[in-house]
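INPUT
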Amino acid sequence: MNFEFNDDQRLLRDQARRFLLDKCPAEVVRQTLESDQPYDKVLWRKFADMGWLGAAIPEAYGGSGMGHLELCVLAEELGRALAPTPFASSIYLAAEALLTAGSEVQKQSYLPDLAAGAEIWCLALSEGSRPATEGNIGTEVSGGKLTGEKLPVADGDIADRAIVVAREGASIGLYIVDLNGAGVTRQTVDTMDPTRSQARLSFTNTGVEKLGTEGWPLLERIQDRAAVMMAFEQIGGAQACLEMAKDYAMGRFAFGRPIASYQAIKHRLADMYIQIELARSNAYFGAWALSTDAAELPVAAATARVAAIEAYNFAAKENVQVHGGMGFTWEFNCHLYYRRARQLALVIGSQRRWKDRLIHALERRNAA
Amino acid sequence: MDFTDTAEESEYRAKARSFLKENAEPKSSGKRNLASGWNKDEALGAARAWQARKAAGGFAGITMPTEYGGQGLSPILQVIYNQEEANYIAPRGVYEIGLGMCIPTMLAYATESQKQRYAPPALRGEEIWCQLFSESAGGSDLAGLRTRAERDGDDWVITGQKIWTSGAQFSDYAILVTRSDFDVPKHKGLTFFFLSMTSPGIEVRPIKQMSGAANFNEVYFTDVRIPDSQRLGAVGDGWKVSLTTLMNERFAVGVAPPPDFDEIFDLVRDTELEDGPALDNAMVRDRLADWYVRQQGLKNAHFRTMTALSRGETPGPESSINKVVSAYKYQEVSFFGMEMQEMLGIITDPDIVAMDGLFQIGALSSPGYRIAGGTDEILRNIIAERVLGLPQDIRVDKDVAFRDLPTGRD
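OUTPUT
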């Protein structure tokens, strides 16, 4: 039994944590929150230089070829530090899509720029308020040209390319689109978490390049992979909330003693711990399934995502509660995690949808 | 990251598998588990026979020292054996407390000749032990106990009453914590013993639980004499000895029994609701997903614990969440299983309701799991204090002589 990260991976985690403590403290996150800058370019460049962006991209495509377990380790630290970068869009989603379904030519031409941080990518799926299901995709490809609107698209305002989910005739496909080319308009939209920007993308007879052949099943496979890495981000954030709430409760006195000595607070923190340990253990199983391409990945990924959403939601809102009135101020950092927790809970589909997906996956496994 | 055994583990697993295959009925055989109803003589007989067979096969006391009849092996091998045994009908329940808590306490505090005398027969299943700790006045606040021990020559004389003692009705020996000094603060006046359950003056009365079963007892002591040679630890050091026992309790009080996700998933797949199959109902799917996620979370946390043991490390605190999560889930799943049966859910007749009434039994048994071995609340205190390092509750009884403490209602 070896259900744990190895010594090298733990070393990477320690290095990443130290680096982010130094280079990505709350003041840095706030620069993105409180200004028009959509992401932190300095940080993004450093991630590229350290080989983090290419952690799971093979060296043949310009990556550092470490692997997905290493990427999970990094994801937890990025989540803990609330790093304001398009990491999830470019790496968990786009790079994974290219690695999963890209042709040799596509991998050769696109992955090196992703690993080097030279290009930002995004995934354009949602089309407004209706759930993003196969039947709800109205964006259309006809004669090699794309027309339609996507909203919201995480990092759509800053991305160089998008992977667009669109209908072509009767089938759904994934298409690579150059967002700097003709027939694309984009508009930044206000969001719950301004440290992660969101956009509206409109396409009018825009040129596309097909990615893979499978369409919807391919999208689900990419989402499964992203869900595991995102779960680690969520756990990193939730753990940070627990530590923050604990520190505050230890130092805050009411009625003559630290509020951390009241069971109402202690039990709340214990519940945060319980949620986080459940989520962490499920994320580990997801990491194993991801890194070994196991048949269990759909079940493991949905389990990891549902648990991670639960844990981060709970930790983020109870962290505000433990801080009392100060937790509700702009000045305190509680709301940074609260915003990010809400963003991550929805960005690749709601918990409700993933619970349904989980049960579907279990039904399929049972029928097999 | 992988799930493969080391060479040593894999060899041991193969050994355990071949022993179990030759000596036990697999659960998949569908035969009845006699241990499910403990009070019956045949269940006890089956449990004794199973423990004896384990001892003969070299699988009793896997982590205990060889000089006292154990196998002297590492904890990970115990976990591996347990995993394999879980696939078989293995009535081990009556020995969990004795071998999990009492004998480890004896090994820590008894004399050499006592250890030689008592450990081997316990491991062979010949002598059953119980633990006389809880009292009506001291449950979560164990140190609030009042059973009195008075020195009389070479003996101690015990008077008082214990409660919630599992298996007292068929135990041969017991460990016992008493109050020997009422004039000092509560933790300082305790003294610890072991004794024969056939000692004159002991009376065992079953407690009928809300489920109708009687797994626990009250044990009354009327001038019960215990020789001082059966004292464990110094006079007044009973709290310290108790902590040794309780450290082992988390191993003894396991996860909650079924129904869990697998059973509720089976039930749902066989259930039709007003608008079609229950499995197609969004609310039902939402609840199922919650329980699956929690069940898997515990399972995967257990893999992490095993990994630490396998590496020879002390497991992290993740195991502390086990009972608090599983007991609550047990109750929720039981209620929901009844819910799925609509009005028929009220019925308990096993011939009428689904799965022989598993969910109805669960509804009536699960409250006990949220209490036994540390209540939901005490376990959260433990996580808060020992795992997260939060301050202990303010103890108003800390520096007060025990006899001066307010008592209230028992």
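end of record. Chain B touches chain A through 51 residues (CB under 8 Å).
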